Amino acid sequence: MPDSPSAERGLLARLVDVRPGEGRALAWSWAYIFSILAAYYVLRPIRDQMGVAGGIENLPWLFTATLLGMLALNLPFGWLVKSLPRARFVPLTYRFFALNILLFALALHLAPPEADLWIGRAFFVWLSIFNLFVVSIFWATIVDVFSTEQGKRLFGFIAAGATLGAIAGSATTALLARAVPTSALLLCAVVLLEAAVFSMRGLARLSERLHHVPREAPEHAPIGGSALAGITRTLASPYLLNIGLFLLLFSVTSTFLYFEQAGIAKRSFPDRGAQTAFFASVDLLVNALTLGVQLFLTGRIVRALGIGWTLALLPAASVLGFAALALSPTITAIVAFQVFRRAGNFAIARPIREVLFTVVPREDRYKAKGFIDTVVYRLGDQVGAWSYAGIAALGFGATAVAATAVPLSLAWLLNGLWLGRAQEKRADEADAARPGSPA
Fold it and tell me: DSSP secondary structure string, 70-97?
């Protein structure tokens, strides 16, 4: 049954510029990303506590293992995208991760206490791989379903579904971490991943009706190409390379802040349950702030500033934030900056960065995007983690780390402006080449 225009343009239309025919797809998108982020944020505080328990000095090695895991999984994922239609490779990927969660729950339930440290380290690495893959696949699907014009209007609002899921997951773990075993929280995440598969299929049924841009291949057909195309096509394209640079610089500077937060938690909360609750509470603050921006500001900001200047907002704020930390590296300043920076990424930078992929070929939306979102992102973690360790080994503290991040953030700002201009040029060229467009 078709969407009712009057129903779509009620309260929802006051928050987002939704057009007739888009309401049901928007609802499925919300349910899809809500389920994924709720699952991840149930698990994230558990990961952070396990990382702290294993020793902050060992975190760089865990980041190295994560990067190697990303590289190992990209080839089989590229083969799945090459060989199977979206309706098959997306559920297979999510259910593979759900099976992993069940195995971790079983290990935690059956293993002796002395094995917890190594199970925790393995879980830290696994979840750091999981969260990037499942979220990247979600956004690849969304970019494949919605057009550039729809992305500018709707992606910020879709990201609000992610924030609601993150709030639900964080709140669940914050409330239950002291009262229920960790294995029970893991089982909750499995159920949420299955809900994500159900929602993805609901969205896929509507994808052909959303817009009338000619498809490169039928919806039910495999995407094809090479299993290595994610790497080769990224390296061959200045546009994709600069998207990778944007994410790399974000990741490096985020890792600096993550290590500072981990140190604060270990010094301030000796109890493991209290540490888990602290990480969950920080996540809750981030997501509450993010939701307000996504619902009321993101779409208006991109309409007012355009893609480039919107992408430049987070690096500009990071220049100011790291400069302030270099002058006064206090605990309060670090936590406040972390909250505002992560909210700015989730509410503004992340959904607008996804618009960049609406002007690339369909193969790049899954393969190159998957490579950038996983391997390049974790490469940034790696650079940030070992740089942080190197600065500490030289006897420098938080001031030196913050001072190093300021020029990196300036380079990131210029990169965002370049990407905005390049995206708009590609979008204009695609519109001009479409049949029936004015000469």
Answer: HHHHHHHHHHHHHHS-HHHHHHHHHHHH
| DSSP-based three-state secondary structure for 410 | helix
Task: Tell me the range of 14-18, 73-77, 199-203 where mean pLDDT is highest.
Answer: 199-203
46 closest CA partner among 148, 169, 162, 209: 169
CA pair distance 247, 251, nearest whole angstrom: 6
Q: What is the DSSP string of 23-41?
A: HHHHHHHHHHHHHHHHHHH
Q: Which residue type does 425 have?
A: K
Neighbours of 312 (CB within 10 A): 21
Q: How far apart are CA 371 and CA 234, in angstroms?
A: 8
Which pLDDT score, from 0 to 100, does residue 8 have?
46
Q: Which residue has 């990247």 as its token pair?
A: 136
Q: Per-residue pLDDT tens for 6-23? A: 444 555 666 677 888 788
Is residue 299 within 8 Å of residue 153, measured between CB atoms?
yes
Three-state DSSP state, 427: helix
Within 10 angstroms of residue 121's Cβ, the number of other Cβ atoms is 19
State both tokens at 161.
């579904």
Residue 130, token pair as written in the block: 């999981």
Mean pLDDT of 111-128: 81
Place of tokens 């899809």: 32
Question: How does DSSP classify residue 221?
Answer: S
* b/e 149-172 (16+ beta carbons within 10 angstroms → b): ebbbbbbbbbbbbbbbbbbbbbbb
Q: Give the 3-state DSSP-derived string for 287-300, with helices as H, strands as E and coil as C.
A: HHHHHHHHHHCHHH
64: exposed, middle or buried (Cβ count in 10 Å: 0-12, 13-18, 19+): middle
